[in-house]
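Morning - iron/sulfur cluster inputs below, output right after.
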Amino acid sequence: DGTTTVTAGMVDALVKTHAPLCMKNLHSTLTATGHLKHYGRLQYNLFLKELGLPVEEALVFWRRSFKHITDDKFNKEYRYNIRHGYGLEGRRMNYPAKSCARILTQDQPGPQDSHGCPFRHFSTTNLSSAMAQHYGLSPAEQSEILASVKQGHYHVACTRIFEITHQKQGVKKGQGLDGRGETVTHPNRYFESSWKLAQA
Ligand code: SF4
């Protein structure tokens, strides 16, 4: 409802439980390597901002996550960018979190990057292992998702994963994010729908 305060310590559980694959992938890369490259930080920082993580908590979260660097390096190289995403530096713009359309078409990731949309930007092998790792999808469920991806229907694939992983909350095939067939167009809408179902 926009009034819940999200803290740095809550991010891990919230993302693992409610986030779409693009954000789970950024989170697990950050956790595993202690780093994210520029566009990955940009995509994830704005997602966390819109999720309700206040800037002070974002700074705590990123400082903890970048576990291989000194405070000095963090303050010099990353603090500004994180605050910039919150509209507190430079031109002080209120940057919105990136929609799926923007993630799919802008700033195409290279081989070393972890930003982007896994449905569009991962190889079939990497996508399959990501689906198994993050959602425990069965081979049959994975085949269904991969068929949508092959046709270029990335949002359909993402929506179907939402449905499969919310079956316990009563979500059936074709019901989408809102029970009436809404498909995924924004990572934060995916998150909010998942979070709402958990409150019901
Ligand atoms: Fe993220 Fe959108 Fe791709 Fe889903 S379809 S993984 S929300 S960019």
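Note: The chain is about 60% helix and 0% strand.

O.
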